[in-house]
Design goal:
single chain; mainly alpha; 5-stranded parallel beta sheet; 3-stranded antiparallel beta sheet; 46 helices; about 60% helix
């Protein structure tokens, strides 16, 4: 920063640009944001002594004692006067005053001193905590702690400064402990472990920090480590002080040994959530023209009102599609909001569709909505369900589970806590949902149906044609969805009379009492709306229904219809007006699941020529392929992959920068992968494989790795079925790459070998390059160094032959790691620099971060630790902004290794803990074992040997299960000699 002191950001309270002072760090002064010269260390000591007296006068003798103690210099009084004179010239007039033989600072606002601002914030936090608002209390405490800028009174001499420095550091630690305690109260256990590990290393005898660390570890599912912390603490206290741990620490150890259920959830007041105090309000808007169903509204409202004092109130509505289950449930939920002041959750479980929502996915969404940090959300369904119930304990929340498949899908999503309630809608009766209040929803009565029709169309138009209106609602079978569709069409056509609509319906299949099957009844109602569409609307309705995925973007819809975006938007908005299509968000559209099925049936029946169905889906695939290729080229300049992809015949989107391309890819991921899985027929297979290959970020980042692997498996099987060796080779390569990032090295190794054989046979050069590079990495991981070098040398040669500089750089960086493992540190650095330089010359930001990662590793092994840390931190910043969670975690792990080499075990432990949290659920067990090994070394370095042993034992179990050679190193660490 060019030597200019940092100005602490004192955001609260707001002040005008005036004098400000800081002692929570170096002693400094500012006028506004302009730093002022505060002079020599003794002069700063004088300023600090006056500032910390909070406006009270300090006599000359008191100041002399503060600056020099019992041995002042001969001219101490003259020196004090000189320092005061110099400060007067720097400060505003009237600030430093002489009175009663001493000096005082007269500040217009006491809060202009950072200590006073911190005191005010701490008081506000305490008030919020007492009121039960832990979220606000944590936020304010973080603001207070942010005012510290290193050691208080840094560089200031004198006994007074020493005393105050100790006092301020103790106060800072007390604030930190208070904030960490609230972190745990709100369920932020995983985040707290890293910070507490570093703090216990810096303050090993502070038992409260140890207690918080034990609790954080226990709540993170790391019971053995929590107990090891106690053992380490007891040994340390006995060795250093000759005392036992205090009673609170002993009690916590016993509770952990008993697996006390009270430890598994926050101990905050009942009204306080286990995470940030968020009140979700996710209910969809209720329809303004809700009609009828009075008995059901009363019945359901009474059940929900009885939730207080009951374990849980559950009502399950069943009925055919279009009967108004969701509308009724949403209406009742809105009316009951007052009974559930802590929030309302909503989810469409997509039970009637081909891919119902997974309960663990829904629970993750609910936990985030309730304020749970991403890193605190466990992986398994059982753990998420348990945390969900813990978060809801003491809260009154209504959960609306719409469109459920069956009771098995619903059970994990039920709150299960007193005061909470659940409303469930489904096409099936949930007789096996224990304790549920079952409601069967039938069609409307004629009076209710006519009332709904009248509200939409208008009383004046219906009054003069009451009989025709009755004919219309009867033709709709009194089904609310059908009535709404028919009425919306009439409302949009002012020239039509009700009789015209009735006449149009007379010839349609409308007699629902003759159609006993629910699906047929719904289909008949949809026919009413479909039959009234204009030809262009009907075509759009049919073709868009062919696409899988939860919704479709405007640009993708335009590709399906082969129309300009503006025309497409007009058509889609007109379909929204008919209620045949929904606007999920600006620029995104979706079908009701039953409407989608009907649209597809219409496409099968009415689309002519039939080849237009395939053409529409082909255009969608081309759109995705062209857009992903555009994003890939921006993200990876110089990479030749885009030149080897199938050429799309439909244009895609263009992006201004890599951030926009990334945003699009991740927002479109689910629909894109659905399109891939839908495109396994022979005509589209190669393009689908190439689309998945170019969308590799979805696997490498860990964001959609499971869905990505499933799509790759489906394409591999499809290619194998039609004996397309080129498509199969690429699909198997994509699958091998995905398995690589998921940590399934044995499977990935075999698949990469298959990809190499297939691609060689098909004369497909680029997959051969990729396969050789991947095989080299796998062989390296498994200590097959000679084989690894052969593969990587081949990859470099083949990438160069293809003119692929980016691929060449990747193989060079991998070869650098191999040279490191075989004690060729100098050449490892040279190779990593060469690869990184190629990336940077290409302007390849993301892959250049991979180069910096490799270079950081090489430099650390070569003893250039400061440079290694700098390169790794550069890489870390890029990975964070690029949402590369796996690489972010791995870079934190490598930084922890460097921290160990520079003998900073506390920082190593903090980075390793963050890596462990970041890699949860991605990257595979082998990588987790590596992080645990380094974490154990760091913990051993800060004296937490018991906890280190726990980490090493877990790592050993992983390595032995995977038959990894690293098991020998960890076994050695666990021997008594190594521990000593």
């Amino acid at each position: 920063m060019d030597g200019v002191p940092r100005v602490p950001e004192q955001r609260r309270p707001e002040r005008s640009a005036a004098l400000r002072f800081g002692v929570l760090g170096p002693v400094r002064a500012w006028h506004g944001d302009d730093p002022l010269a505060t002079g020599s260390p003794q002069q700063r000591a004088l300023l600090a002594a006056l500032l910390l007296r909070e406006g009270r006068t300090a006599t000359a003798s008191e100041l002399i004692d503060a600056l020099w103690g019992e041995e002042p210099p001969p001219r101490a009084l003259a020196a004090v006067r000189t320092y005061a004179s110099r400060l007067r010239k720097v400060l505003s007039p009237g600030v430093l005053v002489s009175e009663s033989g001493g000096y005082a600072l007269r500040l217009s606002d006491a809060r202009s001193l950072d200590v006073a601002a911190a005191q005010e914030l701490a008081a506000e936090a305490e008030k919020a905590k007492n009121a039960g608002d832990l979220g606000h209390a944590r936020q304010v405490l973080n603001e207070a702690l942010a005012l510290w800028d290193g050691e208080s009174l840094a560089g200031v001499p004198g006994p007074h400064a020493d005393t105050q420095r100790t006092r301020l550091e103790e106060w800072r630690l007390q604030l930190l402990e208070s904030r960490l305690d609230m972190d745990l109260e709100q369920g932020c256990h995983a985040e707290a472990v890293s910070e507490l590990t570093a703090l216990t290393a810096a303050h090993p005898l502070r038992e409260r920090l140890r207690e918080l660390l034990m609790l954080a570890l226990y709540r993170s599912g790391r019971q053995a480590e929590a107990l090891a912390v106690y053992a380490d603490t007891r040994r340390l206290l006995a060795d250093e002080l000759g005392v036992d741990p205090r009673a609170g620490l002993k009690e916590l150890q016993q509770r952990i040994l008993r697996a006390d259920p009270g430890l598994a959830e926050p101990s905050a007041p009942a009204a306080e959530p286990a995470a940030a105090p968020v009140r979700p309000a996710q209910l969809p808007a209720t329809v303004p023209d809700f009609t009828g169903r009075a008995a059901f509204v009363t019945e359901l409202g009474e059940v929900l009102a009885s939730a207080e004092g009951r374990v849980m109130a559950v009502s399950a509505l069943a009925g055919i599609g279009g009967v108004g289950k969701t509308t009724l449930a949403v209406h009742v939920a809105h009316q009951s909001r007052g009974a559930f002041p802590d929030g309302q959750l909503y989810v469409d479980l997509q039970g009637a569709g081909p891919r119902p929502a997974e309960p663990e996915t829904v629970l993750g969404s609910f936990l985030r909505a309730l304020g749970t940090a991403e890193s605190a959300i466990p992986d398994s369904l059982e753990e998420r369900a348990a945390l969900y119930r813990s978060v809801l304990d003491g809260r009154r929340v209504l959960v609306l589970l719409d469109n459920a498949k069956d009771a098995a899908q619903v059970r994990p999503l039920l709150p299960g806590m007193e005061g909470c309630a659940a409303l469930v809608t489904s096409r099936v009766r949930m007789v096996d949902l224990a304790g549920a209040h079952l409601v069967d929803l039938d069609v409307m009565s004629p009076e209710e149906a006519l009332s709904l029709f009248t509200k939409i169309v208008g009383a004046e138009r219906v009054a003069s044609e009451r009989e025709a209106a009755l004919d219309v609602v009867a033709a709709c079978g009194f089904l609310p969805l059908a009535i709404r569709i028919a009425a919306s069409r009439l409302a949009a056509r002012r020239t039509w009379t009700v009789s015209v609509l009735a006449a149009k319906l007379a010839d349609e299949r409308r007699r629902l009492d003759e159609l006993q099957a629910g699906d047929l009844a719904v289909k008949a109602t949809f026919e009413l709306g479909y039959g009234q569409l204009e030809p262009a609307q009907a075509r759009a309705f049919r073709l868009l229904g062919l696409a899988d995925g939860p919704d479709i973007s405007l640009a993708a819809a335009a590709a399906v219809l082969n129309l300009p975006v503006e025309d497409t938007e007009d058509l889609l908005e007109s379909l929204v007006d008919t209620s045949l299509l929904e606007s999920a968000a600006p620029g995104r559209y979706r079908y009701h699941d039953l409407v989608r099925l009907y649209a597809r049936a219409c496409a099968e029946r009415d689309e002519w020529p039939p080849s237009e169905r395939d053409a529409a889906m082909s255009r969608l695939l081309d759109f995705y392929l062209a857009t992903v290729a555009e994003g890939y080229a921006i993200e990876r300049p110089g990479d030749r992959l885009v030149d080897h992809l199938e050429k799309p015949r439909t244009a895609g989107l263009t992006f201004e920068n890599r951030r926009a391309a990334q945003d699009w890819l991740y927002s479109e991921a689910v629909s894109l992968l659905a399109c891939v899985r839908q495109s396994s027929d022979n005509a589209r297979l190669r393009r689908a494989v190439d689309l998945l290959w170019a969308a590799v970020d979805l696997a490498e980042s860990g964001a959609n790795s499971r869905e990505y692997e499933a799509a790759a498996t489906a394409l591999r099987d499809a290619a194998r079925a039609v004996s397309d060796s080129r498509a199969e080779g690429r699909a198997v390569l994509v699958l091998a790459n995905a398995r690589h990032w998921s940590g399934y090295f044995d499977q990935a190794d075999e698949e990469a070998r298959q990809a190499l054989r297939l691609s060689e046979a098909a004369g497909d050069p680029l997959p051969c390059c990729w396969a050789a590079n991947i095989l080299g990495a796998f062989a390296f991981y498994q200590n097959r160094y000679v084989e690894a070098e052969e593969h990587l040398e081949r990859a470099i040669k083949d990438f160069r032959a293809c003119g692929d500089l980016s691929g060449t750089a990747s193989a060079l960086c991998n070869l650098s790691r191999l040279h490191l493992a075989t004690d060729r540190a100098d050449s490892a650095v040279r190779l990593a620099r060469q690869g990184t330089g190629m990336y940077e010359e290409l302007g390849h930001t993301l892959k250049a971060a991979n180069g910096h990662y490799a270079l950081g590793m090489a430099l650390s092994r070569n003893g250039q630790l400061s440079a290694a840390s700098a390169h790794l931190k550069d890489a870390l910043q890029v990975f964070r902004t690029s949402r590369q969670r796996l690489w972010e975690g791995m870079t934190l792990f490598r930084l922890a290794e460097v921290d160990l080499l520079v003998r900073s075990p506390a920082q190593a432990a903090a980075n390793a803990e963050m890596a462990l949290s970041m890699l949860r659920g991605i990257g595979g067990e082998w990588r987790r074992g590596n992080v645990l090994t380094v974490l154990g070394k760091a913990l051993s370095g800060i004296g937490q040997t018991g906890r280190a042993q726990v980490c090493w034992r877990e790592a050993l179990e992983i390595y032995e299960r995977l038959h990894s050679p690293e098991a020998a190193e960890v076994q050695a660490l666990l021997t008594p000699a190594a521990a000593a």
